[in-house]
Amino acid sequence: MTLILLTFGAFVLFAASTQLNRTSQKMKNYKTSSSLQNYATNAVDTASHIFLENIGTYDLVPWDGVEEFKSHILARGGVEKYYWQSFLADIDSSVDCANLTEAIRALSADPGLGGDEYTLEAYVYQVGGRYTIVASAQIGGRKAYALGLISYVRGGLVIPAIRMAALNRTLALMNVTGGHGNPKVHGDLVYGSAVVLNGLTIDMTSTSTPSDIITGGVTGDSLTVYEDGDELDQEGVNELLENFPGWYTPSDPNISSDDVYNQWKAEYMELLPDASYTVVLSKDQTLSSVDENVMVVVKAPSNVSDPQFQASFSDEGLEICLGNNCLEIPESLTSSATLSIQIAGDTVFGNDPHKISEVVGHYNVSVLGDATINTNIVLDYQYDYVNNGSRNSPVGNKTKKVSETIISNMLGEERTSSLMLATIGGDMILRFEKGNSTHGNKSLIGSFFSWNDKGKGGDVLFSGLENLDHGNGHTPQLFLFGSLTAYSFDPDGDADNLDSFVAVADSSDSSSLGTGNGRLTLIGIQTW
Amino acid sequence: MIALAILAGFLTLGFALVIAHKKMSMEVSRVSEIEAVANLVGGFIRQDRRLLDCEDEEEVSSRLNELIAILNDDYISNSGFAGTEVSTITGAPLIEDDEIYTISFKLADNLARREEAYHVVVSIR
């Protein structure tokens, strides 16, 4: 019996000591792995800095280690590896790159690069208008890789994404939670600059900057700032703005907001052709040609008072109807010339807030009255960023997870279509609708204007927001890519039910006050 | 008698192993925690927009002083790591006269009474 106990005890002691050894080894491996990843990430930061300082001066050579890097990533489980495979498809051992290994190793004695204990490598590939950096850190037989993406950001440029006299909304720092397929987005982002003449309020945190809310700065007559929920006094606001010179530009106190707005309107009106011809919608018709110098004016027959037009964009062109009588504008007419068209009466665009109206071609549409947007208006080359319908169903009803990478990708697309849509003497009404699967979102891509004329219109209004679901992954959002100009945004206060408002300035926008691609910067790092 | 002596030996070894195991388990959990905090703090520093917007070494240094307070007051404890804090953060140019810095920070583990140093590189270009 004693012998059995002794044997059993010996086994227990052996097992326990073996486990201790294993645990000790795992702990060492964990620390090594963590350090390798940190130094690989630091190598990407360093390489991107050096590369951007000396861009255009490197000899390009192929790197045969790229296949090993790709194998390292693709050996991992999970669907994510297929995304990375697609992302890295343009890079292989036949593609030339800038070799920054020597430059990195010259600095490797620094503690930030491992104090000469690690072997570092870094290579930069150009992929389209962006750059991909691959760096590695190695010690013994263990190696970690990090990948960085350098792209254009336009935070400092003065391209306005929104221009308005009054913005009845506090712009709050954006917070994104939830997975890739079902992001929950709270807060706002203006990617570009903003002009809000009659005072702006932002809600930020002590670790954020005003540029995290409006990247390109704001022009206005006053600024109210909340930091971590507390309103800053004027001294606090001044101190904040001193830290971010150029972000806030006071508007000229000698020029009223009405005068500035009317100046914007005059600039827009200058874009409309002087000559016009009229189409009376008393029967079905098809436009046969487009002259950029002539505006097509669509009117109701004289016996129809207060006409209500219906307009819809599709990949076949634009259709404008009054009752059963429609004017067809084939897509082929607007592929190389911009159609200027004016609709003389209230107009509803689209017939389903969840669906996408795809704009193919070039349009300058003005509405003499209210324009109700009862759809998502999306230019063809941005369609895939908005569409989330299954089996190519033209649905765009999910919250957009906004990141610099996504915005950068959208800005990098080749422009094949354009849209300017304005109301003159009417409001722009954005209609939302509750549905079984919708998150209550509206996507608008193009340049949108709401002009007051003879005391009527000029506002951006919201309809149906109060019925939308909130919580459980539903975070209603207005996503605008282009620009929005209005006298007043949401004067009725309906947009309190909007969890997120995103406005991205598009440099290709013909109404933009400035152009340019911005500056190259490192926008993200992934480490394996 | 011999059997009893062997048994006593096993018992002594057993106690020693139990103590070692307990110590090692604590060590593992502390190392895991301090590495997790290092990742957290490193990521925080890399993404701190105010740090990235600094224009010179003086501004970097000033922002790092603010970051210590922000990290220790709320961020680390709110992330569930109340036993660890940042004892120092310093920044030094990685390349002389250039806008790239090595930010070194030490994490103090109050329970294990030890410090670990970590380094991240940030460019304020």
Can you tell me about this structure?
The complex is a heterodimer of chains A (528) and B (125). Chain A is an alpha/beta fold and 528 residues long. Chain A has two domains: 29-154, no CATH class; 160-512, no CATH class. In chain A, the strands form four sheets. Chain A has a 22-stranded mixed β-sheet that branches. Chain A has a six-stranded antiparallel β-sheet with strand order 1-2-3-4-5-34, with helices on both faces. In chain A, a hairpin with a 2-residue loop joins β19 and β20. Helices cover 58% and strands 24% of the residues of chain B. Chain B has a three-stranded antiparallel β-sheet, with helices on one face. In chain B, β1 (84-93) and β2 form a beta hairpin. Chain B is elongated, with a radius of gyration of 22 Å. The model of chain B has no long low-confidence stretch (mean pLDDT 83). The A-B interface holds A 2-3, 5-6, 9-10, 12-13, 16-17, 19-20, 23-24, 26-27, 30-31, 34, 38, 41-42, 45-46, 48-50, 52-53, 107, 110-113, 206-209, 211-212, 243-244, 521-522, 525 and B 3, 6-7, 10, 13-14, 17-18, 20-21, 24-25, 27-28, 31-32, 35, 38-39, 42, 44, 46, 48-50, 53, 70, 94-95, 98-100, 102-104, 117-123, 125.
The main pleated sheet of chain B reads as:
3 strands, antiparallel
Largest sheet of chain A: 22 strands, mixed
Q: What is the oligomeric state here?
A: heterodimer
What structural class do you assign from the helix and strand content of chain B?
Answer: alpha+beta
The overall strand count of chain A is 34
Question: What is the CATH topology assignment of the domain at 37-123 in chain B?
Answer: Nuclear Transport Factor 2, Chain: A
Which pair of chains forms the biggest interface, and how many residues does each contribute?
A-B, 45 and 43 residues
CATH architecture of the domain at 37-123 in chain B: Roll
Give the DSSP E fraction of chain B (strand runs of 2 or more residues). Answer: 15-25%
Radius of gyration of chain A: 28 Å
Strand content of chain A: 35-45%
Structurally, how many domains make up the residues of chain A?
Answer: 2
